[in-house]
Input
Amino acid sequence: MLPGSRRVGVDVGGTKCLGVVIDQHGTVTSWARRPTATRFDALASTVAAIIAELDEPGDDIDAVGGTGAGTIGIGLPGLVDRQGRLHAAPHLDDAIDLAPIEAASILAEHLGREVVLDNDATCATLAEWRLGAARGLDNMVLVTLGTGIGGGVVSDGRVLRGEHGFAGEFGHFQVDPLGPACSCGKRGCWETFASGRALDALAAAGLGMSGEQVEQAARDGDPAAQAVLDEFAHQVAIGLSALTNMFDPAAFVLGGGLAQTRDVLAEPLARWTAEYLYSASRRPLPALRFAELGPQAGAIGAALLSSSG
Output
């Protein structure tokens, strides 16, 4: 059971901002959603509107960190440092011009409350570890497979944030420096081979289908579609095996849109991960689990920020 009775978190996504209220059991009791603004000042106003919608008259939101009534946890995409500054953001038009943005201070001014910030994928990691698919584990890695790839690490019962708070940008380690151009400006990043966008490209090139159509065709027994998914699982597993060598997790939790494809991806992912892993026959293999909290994970994790240890 969580301390306090009511916590609020907001997850700022690429297309929508989602705010949730959770109770002492971590159960979502209410939520509000609005489109994501593309400039930071407008985004701050959007977050304030969500909080106003979630507020209950006469009911103080419990302090997330125990440092003052009404503290709000917020997850932002991009590079969020330990001082609450935003150094890079994939969906904000003015992020490059303004960086680093004093995000925590600006949001606190708009909300009239203390704000705790972290990266959105780190928030989702915290939620799945505390309340979702990785409950009870001390060592886990979340990998979100969506338009891009993000994630987070829990090691020996603590969320790893790194020296500056930038840990978990898995999508941008280079698998092939001569590979396809990535949205980050580099070439051959893992997410150019293993994201939802990459699956769409594989499906279109091989079968003239979308990724979703290939997934359904594979379920229906189409061998050509199954071969496309096997190649995609191969690309995902290259990264999973590398992360296993780095962090030795008890389990991976796979989230994002592709987490809905466990029925056709679980077997080839496990097979290819073992194929690439160092000394796979001499060590326990990490379990492959799929996220349980769905699109609310980031907002739930934002509400849990201060209790992450």
